Amino acid sequence: MTDTAPSIPDDAVTLSQGARMPLLGFGTWQIKGGDAVRATAAALEAGYRHLDTATVYGNEKEVGRALADSGVARDDVFLTTKFPPNRVGRELETLRASLEMLQTDHLDLWLIHWPGEGSANEDIWRTFVEAREAGLTREIGVSNFDAELLDAVTAAGGVAPAVNQIEWSPLLYDAEVLAAHRERGVALEGYSALRGGTLDHPAIVAIAEQHGRTPAQVIIRWHLQHQVVVIPKSVQADRIRSNADVGGFVLSDEDLATLDSLGGR
Ligand SMILES: NC(=O)c1ccc[n+]([C@@H]2O[C@H](COP(=O)([O-])OP(=O)(O)OC[C@H]3O[C@@H](n4cnc5c(N)ncnc54)[C@H](OP(=O)(O)O)[C@@H]3O)[C@@H](O)[C@H]2O)c1
Fold first, then answer.
1. Distance of alpha carbon 156 from its chain centroid, rounded?
2. Which pTM does this prediction carry?
3. pLDDT, tens digit (0-9, with 9 covering 90-100), for 67-88
4. Ligand 1, from 79, 194, 200, 214: best to mutate by most atoms within 8 Å of Cβ?
């Protein structure tokens, strides 16, 4: 822990139903039990106001407990969980279980976690729209969808997903994918930005050294400057703080062009 408070950015994207989604969130995949309570508490203490969990992560109860005990008002936190599409037909029962574990009466964002089989996506999406209209979630979206799947659910439900959460990093940058989301009014949320060799990529390390920052901070800052949501995960309090401490520097246009070029597209 450092003595000075981290400089947390308050950049956000306004989603289709008007919810303000902070561009920086805290990812909780593979954090379980007491670690999930401690890590989520550390994230809230560090200033994160956006938490990302999922039914299949098995940690909604711990995330909910950390949030309830944090002293941070529920309305000040953007809360996402995800529905596993193999539970098609049991959407509302799954959502109610998530809400109970998260100790809240509504989500900010509910995502279809990955594409389902056959007509599952369309069937689930229509129920998602009903859940949103019933006030159980402010926004609805999807994860791991391509443009064709985004269009299919949009046609089925009459409403486009507010968000698509996909794997994203400088090494996966694709301007066409970003543009496809913008054209459809779908916010792009990236995951696993710190995996896949990004943290020790020489070009990213070089930019980090120029700015006196960590590679993780450069990658997170790159997302923010592209208006892409980023949700770094860590169980280590010092990393949780430092990953959020990205408000105090700016990547140049040249830095951004270098990072974008790593996607090779
Ligand atoms: N929708 C989906 O299908 C999907 C798939 C994957 C992930 N997600 C979401 O996206 C979130 C982020 O993705 P992720 O968990 O795959 O990976 P990530 O946040 O990209 O990277 C996490 C890994 O990086 C390490 N790390 C974190 N900060 C670091 C730092 N400053 N320096 C060095 N290493 C650091 C972590 O280790 P320590 O914990 O030991 O620090 C962990 O091993 C997930 O937690 C989840 O919420 C969604």
1. 25
2. 0.97
3. 999 999 999 999 999 999 999 9
4. 194
Res 2 pLDDT > 90: no
Q: Check if the beta carbon of residue 85 is closer than 8 Å to that of residue 58.
A: no
The answer to whether 236 and 35 have CB atoms below 8 angstroms apart is no
Count the Cβ atoms, other than its own, within 10 Å of residue 247: 16
What is the DSSP secondary structure assignment for residue 6, as one 8-state letter? P
Q: Are 161 and 154 in contact (CB under 8 A)?
A: yes
Of residues 181, 229, 222, the one with CA closest to residue 201: 222
Identity of residue 219: I
pLDDT tens track for 155-200: 999 999 999 999 999 999 999 999 999 999 999 999 999 999 999 9
**DSSP SS3 for 36:** helix
Any catalytic annotation for residue 173? no
d(CA 157, CA 149): 12
